[in-house]
Design brief:
The protein is of the alpha/beta class. The protein is built from 9 helices and 13 strands. The longest helix has 20 residues.
Length: 286
């Protein structure tokens, strides 16, 4: 009999490809929240949210492994991070303990901790809750993720859209602020490799690309990839913060903590991603 995996955030940027791989080896139960999940053979869909676990917790009976992808990433109200990312994860941990789940895989972020804004702080709190539980856990701190066609509405996808629409591209002049983009397939492979892998038990991995790139270098590679030319101009950090303040605090068009998250110092790729998970992340657009 196949073992059973429960996946939250199955309709997310990372979740879609994950289902296709795991359903060949496991029985999958996927949580559908705001976005409708495409019906797939071998996948049981349940509807609900992390705030209403009591309504569907019976579906976790007989589940062997939980892969927790769901979470709020760009909230305009900081309390929503705590409600979903912290309290929601605690609810899921409680149910996992109740049903004696054998492994809990938590997808966190490389921008983690108090210096990374409300989102990073909420993910750090959720990590600590999992570590204090009695569950066998694996934590993957994932960096900014992209796909071949740069799907999505945020992160690197938004930079690609900017690079296509605007002739002038501003980049942060302070090159100490850097990103380590990682391809979605490399993240997916890391998650799959962590499933039932004793080397990954009770461990935390930072899953990012192997390079630490400035925003200028990222734009250069995007333009080369798209075979286009644009005018790149340096932007002082104080000006970037001021512009973001206008959009987030005055026009309410962005989450207040996004700039802090971007400018924060992030953890580099963990060496044990290769040794334990047998994944070697590719270079960004090379």
């Amino acid at each position: 009999m196949k073992k059973r995996i429960f996946i939250t955030g199955a309709t997310s940027f990372l979740g879609k490809g994950l289902l296709d791989i795991l359903k060949e080896r496991y029985e999958i139960v996927a949580l559908e929240h705001s976005k409708k999940l495409e019906t797939k053979e071998g996948v049981k869909i349940i509807k609900g949210s992390l705030e209403s676990i009591s309504e569907w917790e019976d579906c976790l009976s007989g589940i062997d492994i939980i892969i927790h992808l769901a979470g709020v990433t760009h909230a305009k109200n900081g309390e929503l991070y705590r409600k979903v990312n912290v309290a929601g994860t605690q609810n899921l941990i409680n149910i996992a303990e109740k049903h004696t789940v054998k492994q809990f895989i938590f997808i966190s972020t490389s921008a983690v901790g108090k210096n990374c804004g409300a989102y990073g702080e909420s993910k750090k709190e959720a990590e600590e809750l999992l570590k204090k539980s009695g569950l066998v856990y694996t934590i993957l701190r994932v960096g900014p993720t992209y796909s071949n066609d740069f799907q999505g509405k945020e992160g690197l996808a938004s930079l690609v859209k900017l690079a296509k629409k605007s002739f002038i591209l501003p980049y942060l002049s302070d090159e100490s602020f850097r990103l380590s983009p990682i391809h979605r397939d490399d993240v997916t492979n890391s998650i799959v490799s962590a499933v039932e892998n004793p080397k990954a038990y009770f461990k935390t991995y930072t899953v990012t690309g192997p390079e630490n790139l400035s925003t200028k270098e990222i734009f250069y590679r995007l333009l080369k990839h798209n075979k286009t030319k644009k005018l790149l101009i340096p932007m002082p950090t104080f000006l970037a913060k001021f512009i973001f303040y206008i959009f987030s605090d005055i026009f309410k068009m962005a989450a207040p903590d996004q700039m802090l998250r971007l400018l924060s110092k992030k953890e580099p790729l963990s060496g044990n991603v290769l040794t334990d998970l047998n994944v070697k992340p590719r270079y960004f657009l090379k």
